[in-house]
Structures
1.
Amino acid sequence: MMRVSAKVREVAGAQKKQSNSDAWALGVGLVLFWPALFFMVGGDQKEELSRLKGEYDALQQAAIQKKCPVAQEIEDAKSQAKAAK
């Protein structure tokens, strides 16, 4: 589960970085230089994020069914994340 979780963070970070880059290129393209719009090729990673989320959810469900200690750790982490918001 740690491997999947780390990969989710990595892919989500890359997706966010690409989104920020695309927004910047759009702004420059609309205001100053329309060829900048060609830099918006993007590296959309929705499919990989969806696959990883499914894999993570499946691992979590298996941990719950087998009563693994990691299942409680995940629930505790979710509770802490919600409380931090």
2.
Amino acid sequence: MTAGDATSGPLARLGADPNDFDAVIQAVRFELYRENIYGALEMVEAAHHVHPDPRYLEQATRIRSWLTHLANRDAYIAAQDAQYRRLRWRMGLKLIEKRIRMMLGRKTRKMIERRARDPEFQALEREVVAVHARRVLDAGSGEGGVAMALAARHPDMQVDGVEVSATNVRIAHRLNRFANARFRQGLAEEVHQAFPGASFDLVYSFAVLEHVRDVDETIRSIMTVLRPGGRFCFVVPMHEFRARGPIPDYAPVHGYA
């Protein structure tokens, strides 16, 4: 990379001067808050190439440390499950209450009612109806809320959920009251190994693609199990905002991005 290449790329797009460390870091933080982690890293590396400030190197090293869980399959699975164990399965009165509500079916009912009111779910349901879906895949099903809501509202449809976190799969199994909803542990980028080709009329993925190790690989896997003429619906966060003042330092909540 030449100096010209660096300034005509990620830095130039945001009008940042590599010699102005504070301006570059503000631009980098802006990208981080938009969850554009790789874009932020690219900016820091380009700035360091043009202006070798050790602070750029320090920032790049810090950002890379948030991406170590993407190095291999096992690290990715372990990081995702550790996050959900902390979030969902922490021992205490709240967990005991949650388990009681699970056993009584109250949590499942409330979850389905809440999902049915959600605009994203309503948009997904319109697509399900439009393609007359008989088999649907949730690629990244979490605790299974969306899959169970579909199964409850469309009893003639089979919904399969694939989820990276064993913790979430256990929760989904405890919540599930529907014979036409099934859950298994697995990766969204490996669904072609779990199901025969052209198995599903519709595949959806809510807030998952921004976390996978390889988006292209994941989409190829999903398209393999989707029947010709089927639909792939997905939602990813689009954090667009304007800064009214200096952007504060950014750090991932769970130690990885």
3.
Amino acid sequence: MRCLLNHFRGVTCYEDLRTISGVLYNLYREACYALGFLDDDKEFVDGFTEESDFATSFALRILFVILLWSESMSQSRYVWEKCWIYMAEDIQYKVRKMYQHPDW
């Protein structure tokens, strides 16, 4: 909120702080992202995309958990939505093997 208060002068209500280009954001953090004050974690998405060619899905899941524990990502949901497919590539194979059903 401090970033928004420094950016806008003369606001009269909290909603004015969260309104960017006519869009009212639910959270101050979302408004800061819209203004570019905070990182969007694109480097993590790029890293997962690049590593998906070399690392196993299990290793990518471990890496994601480590990043969550260390609070390195500011938008972990964004990274998850962009990269979950890389972390889940082996699940279909494991389910087929577990149920001995190769056609699934």
4.
Amino acid sequence: MTKVSSGEMGVNAASREYGISSRTLRRRPKSESSIVRLGRELVLGVQHERRFVALIKSLGKIGFAPDATAVKIMAYKFAEKLNINHRFSKVHERAARNTDLSVRKSEGLSVARAKGMNRKEVDDFFNLLQEVLKNNDFYNKPGQIYNVNETGIQINNKAGKVVATKGAKVVYSLTSSEKGENDSML
């Protein structure tokens, strides 16, 4: 193919030497690539869309997985920032092109729990628990530790669907209160 396109060898000579049909050799240079993409061109382009997908994945990993509306708004702002002439497709079409993304139902994660889950807070909690157990001599009297059952009405909102990495076990989105926050009664 390279000898024919560079002019070193004629089509008929290459056909005889390599055993390829001359019709194939004439047709092949006309098609620049063997992969033909049907439909409209990508609005953001392949490289920018990869960056956009990476942004969505990173937001999902830290507990801020965007919902479909947020993805549309982010795509609009992304295109505006890059001065790209845009028209946007549906989230499901973008997910079809990027098979590692899917629309999933998220699990609620309160702001308090998100802030509280760091190494310092957890270490402080267990140090305090150990101090309470030691001061009240609960290590020698485990029968003095009681279980408290919770009952009441849940006051948190229902988590919606978000766009996240396909195959992720749990996808979080922030809620206004703790999951299962109830009035406690003994």
